[in-house]
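Model it.
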Amino acid sequence: MESQRNVSEFILLGLSHDQNMQIFCFVLFLFCYAALLVGNLLILVSIRCSPLFHQPMYYFLSHLSTLDICYTSSITPKLIADLLVERKAISYGNCMLQVFAMHFFGTIEVLILTVMAFDRYAAICKPLHYLLIMNRTRCNLLVLAAWAGGAVHSFPQFCMVIRLPFCGPNEIDHYFCDIFPLLKVACTDTYITGVLMVANSGMVTLVTFVVLFFSYVIILFTLRNHSAEGRRKALSTCGSHITVIVLFFGPSIFAYLRPPTNFPEDKIFALFYTIIAPMFNPLIYTLRNSEMKNAMRKFWCQT
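Modeled.
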């Protein structure tokens, strides 16, 4: 543990060394982050102040919006601030905190998306028993299980990373602290740690994606027996969920389900699951959802 103190901070190499590109990225990501905050806060307030909060799907959506804010806020503000400075430094403690927060909130978000898929399965495949299956007590337990799952996933990873000795160099070829870039600068053999990280993050991502994929296949198969109006409404809701899943899981699988090494494309793919997918969540869930749009319209017209 003492050897870790040889490095008190890390230097992030960031997205680009080109000054004009950094200014462009600053404006772009500042807009994206502001849009993410405003959009998710609008969803949160609109759901909490309307009868939709008592419906399981919107109850879970409010939690997803909260997690979008927490997850992205662990990375994006630091990225935006670093685009304005030449030396992009992060202290050892803040780096470890960023690793933990990203994987903790990210895993909870993944599990909430899984819970939302189960909710849609119950609503479409078991409509007569839906209210019994998705009662408020069970919804609370599912959310609690998602938070517990986030802790079970992130604490072992955090313990492995914090035990790594860092004695120089301290340059991380990324715009935030993540596991694989840290393994590269650790001054010890990280092969076993890397395999364990892939088994943890990679398999969690892949298994969750497979479960979600087959859940929606079953849902879409069941829709054949529904009326045209029922199919249209269900497809609109499920289409929103599937879009979010593809945006989030595609780049995540590339990033974590592979040998622990770094590729030039890592930073671009990371932008999708750290900024772009969370930013589009409010648009996807509101523009394709008439109930959500009506709730927002009623609430904000009244105020």
